[in-house]
Amino acid sequence: MPTSSKHPETVVLHASHRFDAGTGAVAVPIFQTTSYQFDNTQRAANLFALKELGNIYTRIMNPTNAVLEERIAALEGGVAALAVSSGQAASAIAVQNIARAGDNIVSSTDLYGGTWNLFANTLKDQGIEVRFVDPTDPENFRRATDAKTRAYYAETLPNPKLTVFPIKEVAEIGRKLGVPLIVDNTAAPVLCKPLEHGAAIVVHSTTKYIGGHGTSIGGIIVDGGNFDWEKHAERFPALNTPDPSYHGAIWVQAVKPLGPIAYIIKARVTLLRDLGSALSPFNAFLFIQGLETLPLRIREHVRNAQAVATYLKKHAGVAKVIYPGFFDGEQKRRADYYLKGGYGGLVGFELKGGKDAGRRFIDSLKLFYHVANIGDARSLAIHPATTTHSQLSPEEQLATGVSDGYVRLSVGIEHIDDIIADLDQALKASDTRALAAE
Ligand code: PLP
Hints:
- The protein has helices at residues 8-14, 41-48, 63-76, 87-96, 113-125, 139-143, 167-177, 237-240, 251-254, 262-275, 281-292, 294-314, 329-338, 354-364, 394-399, 416-430, 432-437, and strands spanning 80-84, 104-108, 129-133, 149-155, 181-184, 201-205, 219-223, 318-322, 346-351, 369-370, 380-382, 406-410.
- Helix 1 runs antiparallel to helix 3 and helix 3 (63-76) runs parallel beside helix 11 (281-292).
- By secondary structure, the protein is an alpha/beta fold.
- The strands form two sheets. It has a seven-stranded mixed sheet with strand order 1-7-6-5-4-2-3, with helices on both faces.
- It folds into two domains: 8-290, Aspartate Aminotransferase, domain 2, CATH 3.40.640; 296-437, Aspartate Aminotransferase, domain 1.
- The site of pyridoxal-5'-phosphate has 15 residues, from helix 4 and helix 5.
């Protein structure tokens, strides 16, 4: 590791790569190659047998992607990571790596709409049952667990609810029962480190804050290296019994000399090999670029979101502002405990005028983009009920916190005066009473 620093600002610039050994290049080179010359047949055989680790084929590993993987693993405090083609691929592989047909996982209800669909429909079709529970009470996870439960799943800062997940509480329940917690940390990179609170696996959609510039779709799975898969051998046959797809390898044994990386190595050399959802090296390069300024951008997102939330709270046309800094009781305690350095860049609100006012508001925005993404340097807005969450039933929408009049803002890093001015004019335009009075 070129740096031993634990400070995110340094890690994102220096972890894993200092300069390219062959050329001296300081920027991480884009290794736009599919394949790698094997020195000799023995070396080739060793690589395929995992006796030596090295590049075989870009569907399963690439040196540019490796820098991204090592940097994000260092940022999250994990031991290794696997970059994939999207956040969706990251969540799917993170679960499929340990759960098979007939197994179940227990998931928080508070999820990104795409993850909800993956869990409620696609995984179900594949025979993996997802038991959704309300994370308000961490004990719900224990109650839903049985001998076939392979993982718990949650998002650190789920939108639209923006109620921070009780990572430590649920991780502790899981550790006693032998169930690892997988946390999607997409909305709170730098602010929260789920592995430090006992999570076993972290996933990100790098499409969001890590990329930061709205250019590329990608995802990553980080292995905390802190879960004893061998101790819970009965629960994890996928890691503890011979894998017929890899000449009978028992993953916890096969990679022991390389460190506690059985989970992530298996994901790489079986699921990524077979499903093929590889990240292109060019996109890995763009994520590395984004990562370099992530801590800096997050500070600005946090500062601007706080100002926007404060502004909206005072506005007469706004019925309710959803922002972690404004919660009280247990929700506020969780926000303060798990988010260090601010409450993130997302702000939700409900207009007094309901759905129609919401639509007029979105259509009147001039600086904010009307897009499905979050975490871009630019300010973004969307009406989830008619877009990101529209494939969910009305009951499912309400369970994930989407009401008819809810508007989600991903506050960017433009000058705060310009952000507020745009919100101000759009709120005015959305209010029919104000228009009538003019
Ligand atoms: N997880 C969260 C929290 C998200 O917001 C998203 C996308 O919006 C995803 C996962 C899926 O990521 P991607 O769009 O990169 O597949």
